[in-house]
Recover the amino acids of this structure.
């Protein structure tokens, strides 16, 4: 499937992280939490007000804002 | 165990540090290890909780245990993480560098938890790895080969369920081993160019005296990689050199931090290969099912509103019972003192200064206990993170995150516990903004003043209750809007900078450990009594003196009724004279010197406004509070300027209401803000901006009202 952004996934969709830009401080923390190129993620849901989003990575549930998720490119899994 | 190791017992007082991610059950383990033998305090200079305790080895040797703040990484991004980094690197003078580390990881979330562990391994300190909550992971179908894990990491690995004390004996046996050695780092070699760059930056930092020339290269690593503009825990004089060192390494190896993260995860992946087995198909967990409901578009909000409604019921209604009891006790004490002592300065000091001060501190306790029990309960179950998740969007409009929501909400009961609750906000900037705007929320002490002034504004029983209710609602709304506007303004102007990213973990739900919650609640309450209590007490005595001295001697030629004498004595006191001195300031908002005195007194606590006006206007006090209130209201309606115009015009009433919405009139909050920001700068700033806004708006309201 076509490469897209983490923030554009639909609830329940699974994907593999393709790339994160380097040098954005908040993204370094996201990397430290285990979101690296090649990591599988699941988009769990959006908050009822539309932001932030909840994802599942390496067995943990994390919440990110769109402002971060928009930088993360993913390859959706079928 | 060999004979030699048996003969060399552990050093008495050896220091163990507990280290782990947030939500890994570290504190539960700490409590299980140390029981009641623990001390809770603060790291000097920051509001990070410091917990120390004691336990005994299998052979009765006393060991010290420090529960270090939860952290995801030694690359500090919050004051909590900076404390962890500095203690582990031996950079804090107030805390000894631990002799041994117990690294606690959540077994269900092993890879992510091991990231911090890979950093710990490099410190060269003997380690024990605790796989906590192993029951949950095994129930989900994960299997661990503990022996091989222990072999691979070269340290004891203890599977545990800390909440049930399962594995505690095994952990204590491991802690009692005298022969633990420093583990081998997991990264075989830190990528060579990165290491080289770090050694060079160490030389640069050593010339400025920021690290010692023989420091491990890890020290520059974690100092310069603190990818945070605030540089927590680093002296301001060192920041520039650290920035330069960071830029230098970045120039040599662009993206080095990100590469290092990837190298660590690769090493974890390799280390776990063949040691843990995960089920192929993970089924929906209880947490997934609960979240479907609790984060639902409709049910989620309904749950949130009912939960918070229940909290409000507790802090507004139920709290009356213990508060009434405390006040009753103090009245009783007051009467005893009055029965025992003759009227005089000392008696006045004891009853109106000291006893009033102590009871002024203690009446906050029920609210603090309830709010912190509630917060502890929601944090322990995991629901707190969901509240932040639900509310984040709204708070982000003014540059805050969802974590600021609960402290702001709690401030509607009382800003004291509200400000104390901001400790759950990691970002110091968000925390400060939340502290600064919290007292704008209409707290319960404003309510009696609002009711009195509304009664004076729309007098008579003919006014439909709806009118009064909508005025009251408007005042609450004004407080909320004010808090949001100022948060937005501070975010833009006062503390500009990139808004903090809200990266929030939503931990798995679990049953709350009541013991932990109660412990936490008491330690907060105790901290309030000890730190804020002393300030409140001192200020209360000061205010009593201000409104008492110099004293008015009774004039036998002109006998006065008791109420009239009290009124004259107040007028004669320094506070009364101050009221007269500030009359020119109060006049633009429609007041006279009497209102000035009321306002001065209300800076101790807003609710004092009514009783002070009562004294000034010589309103006889009655046993029945409603009756006193009605009498005071009727008295206000009769009050006239010297030229015969009524004082309490609608313009003045509205101006006073607006003043009370915005002005900072609460010594207790000032004391707590000083405590929580560790300086007088912010409480004074808060006093100035809030009172200034209140005054300017009150003047504007009154001046406009004169045009009609």
């Amino acid at each position: 499937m076509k490469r897209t952004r983490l923030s554009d996934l639909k609830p329940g969709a699974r994907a593999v992280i393709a790339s994160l830009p380097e040098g954005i401080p908040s993204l370094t923390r996201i990397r430290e939490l285990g979101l690296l190129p090649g990591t599988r993620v699941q988009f769990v849901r959006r908050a009822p007000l539309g932001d932030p989003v909840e994802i599942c990575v390496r067995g943990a549930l994390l919440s990110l804002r769109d402002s971060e998720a928009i930088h993360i490119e993913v390859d959706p899994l079928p | 165990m060999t004979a030699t190791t048996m003969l060399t017992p552990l050093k008495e007082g050896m220091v163990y540090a507990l280290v782990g991610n947030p939500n890994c059950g570290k504190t539960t383990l700490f409590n299980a290890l140390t029981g009641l033998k623990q001390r809770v305090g603060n790291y000097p200079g920051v509001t990070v909780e410091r917990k120390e305790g004691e336990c005994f080895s299998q052979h009765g040797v006393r060991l010290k245990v420090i529960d270090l703040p939860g952290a995801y990484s030694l690359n500090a991004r919050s004051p909590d993480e900076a404390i962890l980094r500095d203690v582990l690197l031996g950079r804090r003078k107030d805390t000894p560098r631990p002799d041994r580390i117990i690294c606690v990881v959540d077994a269900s979330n092993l890879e992510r938890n091991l990231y911090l562990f890979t950093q710990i391994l490099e410190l060269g300190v003997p380690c024990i790895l605790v796989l906590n909550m192993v029951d949950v992971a095994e129930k989900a179908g994960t299997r661990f080969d503990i022996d091989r894990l222990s072999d691979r990491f070269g340290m004891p690995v203890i599977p545990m369920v800390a909440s049930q004390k399962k594995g505690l004996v095994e952990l204590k046996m491991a802690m009692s081993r005298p022969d633990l050695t420093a583990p081998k780092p997991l990264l075989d070699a830190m990528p060579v160019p990165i290491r080289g760059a770090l050694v060079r930056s160490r030389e640069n930092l050593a010339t400025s005296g920021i690290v010692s020339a023989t420091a491990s290269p890890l020290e520059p690593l974690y100092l310069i990689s603190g990818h945070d503009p605030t540089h927590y825990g680093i002296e301001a004089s060192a920041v520039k050199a650290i920035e330069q060192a960071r830029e230098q390494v970045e120039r040599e190896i662009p993206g080095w931090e990100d590469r290092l993260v990837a190298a660590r995860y690769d090493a974890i992946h390799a280390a776990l290969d063949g040691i843990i087995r995960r089920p192929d198909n993970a089924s929906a967990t209880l947490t997934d099912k609960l979240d479907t409901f609790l984060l639902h578009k409709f049910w989620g909000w309904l749950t949130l509103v009912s939960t918070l409604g229940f909290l409000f019921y507790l802090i507004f209604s139920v709290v009356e019972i213990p508060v009434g009891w405390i006040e009753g006790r103090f009245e009783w004490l007051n009467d005893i003192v009055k029965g025992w002592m003759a009227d005089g300065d000392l008696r006045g000091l004891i009853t109106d200064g000291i006893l009033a001060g102590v009871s002024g501190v203690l009446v906050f306790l029920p609210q603090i206990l309830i709010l912190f029990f509630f917060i502890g309960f929601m944090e322990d179950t995991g629901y707190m993170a969901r509240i932040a998740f639900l509310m984040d969007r709204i708070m982000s409009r003014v540059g805050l995150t969802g974590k600021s929501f609960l402290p702001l909400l709690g401030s509607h009961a009382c800003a004291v516990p509200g400000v104390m609750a901001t400790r759950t906000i990691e970002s110091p900037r968000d925390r400060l903004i939340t502290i600064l705007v919290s007292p704008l929320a209409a707290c319960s002490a404003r309510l009696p003043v609002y009711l009195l002034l509304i009664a004076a504004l729309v007098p008579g029983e003919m006014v439909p209750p709806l009118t009064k209710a909508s005025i009251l609602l408007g005042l609450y709304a004004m407080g909320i809007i004010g808090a949001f506007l100022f948060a937005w303004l501070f975010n833009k102007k006062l503390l500009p900078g990139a808004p903090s990213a809200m990266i929030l973990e939503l931990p798995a739900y679990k049953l709350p450990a009541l013991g932990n919650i109660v412990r936490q609640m008491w330690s907060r309450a105790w901290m309030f009594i000890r730190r804020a209590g002393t300030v409140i007490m001192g200020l209360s005595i000061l205010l009593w003196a201000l409104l008492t001295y110099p004293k008015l001697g009774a004039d036998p030629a002109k006998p006065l009724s008791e109420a009239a004498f009290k009124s004259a004595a107040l007028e004669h006191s320094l506070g009364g004279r101050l009221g007269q001195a500030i009359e020119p300031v109060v006049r633009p908002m429609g007041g006279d010197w009497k209102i000035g005195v009321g306002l001065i007194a209300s800076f101790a606590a807003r609710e004092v406004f009514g009783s002070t006006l009562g004294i000034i206007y010589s309103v006889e006090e009655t046993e029945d509070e409603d009756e006193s209130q009605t009498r005071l209201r009727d008295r206000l309606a009769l009050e006239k300027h010297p030229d015969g115009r009524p004082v309490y015009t609608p313009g003045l009433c509205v101006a006073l209401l607006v003043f009370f919405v915005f002005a900072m009139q609460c010594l207790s909050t000032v004391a707590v803000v000083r405590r929580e920001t560790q300086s007088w700068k912010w409480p004074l700033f808060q006093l100035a901006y809030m009172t200034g806004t209140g005054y300017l708006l009150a003047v504007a309201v009154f001046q406009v009202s004169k045009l009609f």
Q: What stands out?
A: Helices of chain A lie at 25-32, 66-69. Chain A has a mean pLDDT of 91. The beta strands of chain A are 4-5, 14-19, 40-46, 53-57, 60-64, 73-76. The interface with chain B takes residues 20, 22-23, 25-26, 28-34, 36-37, 44-45, 47-52, 54, 57-65, 67-68 of chain A (CB under 8 Å).
